Amino acid sequence: MRKFIILFLALIVMSFGITLYLKADLGVDPITTFASGVANVFNVIIGRGSQISMTLFLIIIFFLDKKRIGIGTLVNAYLTGELLNIFMKININTSSMTIRLLLLLAGIVLFGIGLAMFVISELGEGPVDAIILIFTDKYNLSFQKSKTIGDIILVVGGYLMGSSIGLGTILGTFLTGLIMSKTIELYKRFELRQA
Known about the structure:
Layout: H1 2-24, H2 30-42, H3 46-65, H4 71-87, H5 97-121, H6 127-139, H7 143-160, H8 167-194
């Protein structure tokens, strides 16, 4: 039950983080950059673009290592898009650059924490992180390094499909893996203290 609660919270935290990225309008995280590009190509809203992207990644995972697909992978793939469509209806004042920068920083932190919570739930990672973990294991790289490489590939792919790149994209590319690693590390320390 605790794992399902963590998974549910992960979904909310991550989706709200993406929403703050989008509301700041200073460039979005790498996964949303790619999803935004897919939305451009198919002429659909961002939530649908996210679902199409995640379906593509699920197909890749199925052929690389289908054991990585869990309930969390499927929940991430489809419900994130729905939550994005809901959260985007929230009216947030973005009249000043200071507010937009604060929204961006909050978005980066919440997104990284949300992704880490998916991993912590052990019910299956998000589709992109599952692919990154497959390559981490295969090539014996650190998660942070694999995540950064994966994020760069997503950003380039999104850009080639018409997504815009900004400060948020650059910061997200280099900070998300670090925030995830630190969140997982803190959780493991907490677990050891509770044992």
